[in-house]
Specification:
Layout lengths: L3 H22 L6 E9 L5 E9 L4 H10 L1 H12 L8 E6 L2 H19 L1
Parallel strand pairs: 2-3
Antiparallel strand pairs: 1-2
Helix pairs in contact: 1-3
GO molecular function: ribosomal small subunit binding
Keywords: Cytoplasm, Ribosome biogenesis
Family: Belongs to the RbfA family.
């Protein structure tokens, strides 16, 4: 169970990271990176960031690039939230594939409905 402080920091980090990714992906046409969930550890030292990347065919490559540039992202985040947080958490990025999972379920249900007809 997250404390109120953790929830506030989760929302703050999600908002600021979303803005950073929006600015960085403006240059790359046809690519959208959105921050779906941020979870901060109880000591506020680590943050797990779940990303939803479109198009999903390029998701692994984009996530790999993000992971190699994690220090730069943490620095940019520190520039934005440095006045609100004493310690900028270490960032670990994960792929949020829940939309792909839902799409697969919809496709399976549609194919099942077509078989019944």
């Amino acid at each position: 169970m997250d404390t109120t402080r953790q929830q506030k920091i989760n929302r703050l980090l999600q908002k600021e990271l979303s803005e950073i990714f929006r600015k960085q992906t403006q240059m790359m046409r046809g690519v959208l990176v959105s921050v779906s969930v941020v979870r901060v550890s109880p000591d506020l030292g680590n943050a797990k960031v779940y990303l939803s990347i479109f198009p999903s065919e390029q998701a692994k490559e984009i996530l790999k690039n993000i992971k190699t540039n994690v220090k730069t992202l943490r620095f940019d985040l520190g520039q934005k939230v440095g006045k609100q947080l004493r310690i900028i958490p270490d960032l670990s990025f994960y792929l949020d594939d829940s939309l792909d999972y839902l799409e697969n379920i919809d496709r399976l249900l549609d194919s099942d409905n077509n078989k019944d007809e």
